[in-house]
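Hi there,

I know you've been waiting on this one. I reran it after we fixed the sequence typo, so this is the corrected version. Both the input and the resulting structure follow.
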Amino acid sequence: MVGVLCFCWSTLSAQVNEGPLFKAYFGAGVTSSQISGDRLNGFDQLGFNLGLGTELQRNAQWRPRLEIIFNQLGSRKNARPDEGDFDSYLLRLNYIQVPLTMSYLSGSTGFELGLAPGYLLSSREEDENGTVLGLGREFKDYDLGLILGIRYAFAERWELGTRLYQSTLAVRDHTGSSTFRLNRGQYSTAIQFILRYSVSG
């Protein structure tokens, strides 16, 4: 992943001399996520995403992109004392991801599809008592997500993006390591909102 970061950064540095073949950009936004198998519903865990990327502009409509981003996934349940519910739950998974996507552009709008290999940097899981949960069921170091997204260029260098992210590998085994057909454990699902700024291209 260090090599990917160096490649993206070298692209940022070389744009003046390389011309418009590549477009380099920074991106930041909010990630709303949930995880299967925790008996909770809703994209209640809010995190942030931050990264940089480069886009090949050889074709006017088809645009491959390579990015490296920090992305926060997880799950959350807030206590509701006014309703007599004092239980809370927090799961936060911090990933470094390397999305590789292909976009189809039509005017200012684009549609993208791709994969996002990821490496788990850290995890945090606790309840209303601050008790650390999940000991003995460790989260897996590597993830592979499927990306489906839409992007909209609203100014010369500015773009808004929305992505649906679905992990294709279980991020953790079920209790007792039970499985059922394609259900191999717990999976992450997220919606990302990203603001991007192009520094070249």
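Quick highlight: Residues 2-198 form a domain with the Porin fold (CATH 2.40.160.20).

Best,
R. S.
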